[in-house]
Amino acid sequence: MVQDRIFGISVLIFCLIMFMETFNFAEKTPWQIAGPAVFPRFIIAVIAVVTLVLLIKSFLQKSDRTSSFSWETFINKYGKTIILFALFGVYVVLLPILSFIIATLLFLIVGQAVLMGLKKPKTIVLNLSISVIMTFSVYLIFTHLLNIWLP
Hints:
- It is a single chain.
- By secondary structure, the protein is an all-alpha fold.
- It folds into two domains: 1-65; 71-151, no CATH class.
- The chain has five helices and no strands.
- It has helices spanning 2-21, 38-60, 71-98, 100-116, 121-145.
């Protein structure tokens, strides 16, 4: 679809600019394991790869145009996305109040519940496991590997 192609090319240009900006970061100090540009470069690379997949998919898919707009279709298609954006806004507000670990755990648990649902015990266990592992992994990477304090 044309929108996906325009979006994909725009994001790739943005990734290229941001990647080039990481070369202006300060150099790694002797007590750091990795320099300050490592994490941003990693995130930029992940975004670029996912965007390339979207761009390739946009050329392989046939366009399916719908002629009329329907709120029901819009909510069914984008409802979870809207909820996640609102949830992220709440997360940003709560982050300095609750601390990184608590706010991130709550954000991930509720966010995954919105995406996956909580109908089966296996889903609940998976949700909690991923939330705890990701929260503490990011915390440990930032505090111990990158020497960056989190709130």
